[in-house]
Amino acid sequence: GMKVEEHDEL
Amino acid sequence: MNIFRLAGDVSHLVAIIILLLKIWRSKSCAGISGKSQVLFALVFSTRYLDLFTVFVSVYNVVMKVVFLALSYATVYLIYMRFRNSYDSENDTFRVEFLLVPVIGLSFLENYAFTPLEILWTFSIFLEAVAIMPQLFMITKTGEAESITTHYLFFLGLYRALYIANWVWRYHMEGFFDQIAVVSGVVQTIFYCDFFYLYVTRVLRGKGKMSLP
């Protein structure tokens, strides 16, 4: 899933 | 971090540097869409606002700062330093036709209705279509210099490697970023036609790529 406000990709 | 992600980021960096060096060395931005480059600067500016809020890694921070700096340098070279060579007559793609739907979609489809998340989503959707003014320009003039095509090749390669990265992450980490994956796949499809021309005309032929 996707944790909001933690986008680790560029 | 996996090898596809790293290779994707490196391809992205190579693409940006190829374009910047081409403009710098030839002192000309002929054949380059300034509009696409402004859109990419906007993509980085709205996506990397989290530089101020979260710390992911040193790699993450350095790459974000480098991408931001290089994208603004490219825009500066096109519109200021070498603006005499800017081919505005052929850079006529109507950017508002991209921006309006992209702004609308980012308000409708996002992970959280907060300013940073909406801007992040906006940047993801905008990146998917930001190359369209450049592709439109090539279609309009019917040709592209080989360095411009190398730039587009590495941009497309970056997208393809990111898809491999998502397949890897889905299987290894159970990670699935629906917004990034869907728009990333759409974005990669835009490059398929170009990839075909690149392989058949640029790599097998030499010099410029001209359209039939």
Describe what is shown at a glance.
The complex is a heterodimer of chains A (10) and B (212). By secondary structure, chain A is largely without helices or strands.
Description:
The complex is a heterodimer of chains A (10) and B (212). By secondary structure, chain A is low in regular secondary structure. Helices cover 0% and strands 0% of the residues of chain A. Chain A has no helices and no strands. Chain A is flat. The termini of chain A are far apart. The relative contact order of chain A is 0.30. The model of chain A has no long low-confidence stretch (mean pLDDT 72). Chain B starts with a helix and ends with a strand. Chain B has helices at residues 3-26, 34-47, 58-81, 96-108, 115-129, 132-141, 146-173, 178-203; strands at residues 143-144, 209-210. Chain B is mainly α and 212 residues long. In chain B, helix 1 (3-26) packs antiparallel against helix 7 (146-173), helix 2 packs antiparallel against helix 3 (58-81) and helix 4 (96-108) packs across helix 5 (115-129). Chain B is built from 8 helices and 2 strands; from the N terminus they run ααααααβααβ. The longest helix of chain B has 28 residues, at 146-173. Chain B has a two-stranded antiparallel ribbon with strand order 1-2. The chains are: A little secondary structure (10), B mainly alpha (212). The interface between A and B is medium-sized, with 9 and 28 residues.
Computed CA radius of gyration of chain A, to the nearest angstrom: 6 Å
Distance between the termini of chain A: 18 Å
Encode the helix/strand succession of chain B as letters. HHHHHHEHHE
| Class inferred from helices and paired strands of chain B | mainly alpha
The oligomerization state is heterodimer
Largest sheet of chain A: none
Beta-strand segment tally of chain B? 2
Fraction of residues of chain A in helices?
Answer: under 10%
DSSP summary: helix tally of chain B: 8
Helix content of chain B: over 70%
Mean pLDDT across every amino acid position of chain B: 94
- Annotation, overall tally of beta strands of chain A: 0
Terminal CA distance of chain B = 41 Å
Mean pLDDT of chain A: 72
Round the Cα radius of gyration of chain B to an integer and report it: 17 Å
Weakly predicted, low-confidence segments of chain B: none
Which strand-content bin applies to the residues of chain A?
under 5%
The number of helical elements of chain A comes to 0
